[in-house]
Amino acid sequence: MDSYEWNKIFGWLLAAAIAVLALGIVTGFFFHDERPEQMAFIVDVPEVAVAGEEETDPMIELATSMQSAEIARGENVFKKCATCHTVAQGGANKQGPNLYGIVGRDIGSYAGFGYSEALQNEPGAWTFEKLNGYIANPRTSIPGNQMSFAGISKARDRADLFVYLNAQGSNEPLPAVPALPLAGDDPEDTGPEAAKAEDVPEAELSDAAAVPESNIGGPAAENQDTTDETASQ
């Protein structure tokens, strides 16, 4: 195949590419893929709860994790906080306040640190429950605070961190694990026997209690009375 034939092939390929490009530009003027300002149909899909999915009490999860938490692991977790906080007694404030004795300390009370208005106005103390919510998600736990930390999502990591912080000048008792009812327990007496008693109408119970004395003994008693009468005659 000579150069003339190759030139023809390349020419046709180039012409086809130009034609496709031109076609795309032209059709772009007539057809648009922008989202319309008002949708023609709005499909409202309700949220469906997953069967058997129940929200776990965060304190039950934390208290359970704290039973096996370790100070050494918590010291390692604290490295995430060490950029902004010190934990030694008398340590300096950094971007965040010193955390020595933090467990049980009043919120926003460490001397010499400029707390945000949100923390200044937050009542109460840094209990394990309060720390758990705050460290899990600082933004939603106390809205308006200025701590630039995303939080620690794993309950086990938070438990390790809290036992470490608790050992740094606090020594508060660890939260007890709430007792859960055992399978088969019926503390409110709502079992089958109670259900049977509830199913009996009150009127029937009253009628059963109000049996006339004359009917006590039934037919046998009546026959006995008849025999006595005949003997006396």
Any overview of this molecule?
The structure is a single chain. The chain contains 10 helices and no strands. The longest helix has 28 residues, at 3-30. α3 (71-77) crosses α7 (155-166) and α5 (128-136) packs across α7 (155-166). It has helices spanning 3-30, 58-66, 71-77, 117-120, 128-136, 138-141, 155-166, 192-199, 202-209, 218-232. It has 233 residues and is an all-alpha fold.
Keywords:
single chain, 233 residues, mainly alpha
What percentage of residues falls in helices of 4 or more residues? 40-55%
Number of helices: 10
Assign the structural class, choosing from mainly alpha, mainly beta, alpha/beta, alpha+beta, or little secondary structure. Answer: mainly alpha
Number of strands: 0
The whole-number mean of residue pLDDT values reads 77
Report Rg: 40 Å
Architecture blueprint of SSEs:
Elements: H1 3-30, H2 58-66, H3 71-77, H4 117-120, H5 128-136, H6 138-141, H7 155-166, H8 192-199, H9 202-209, H10 218-232
Would you summarize the structure shown here?
With 233 residues, this protein is mainly alpha-helical.
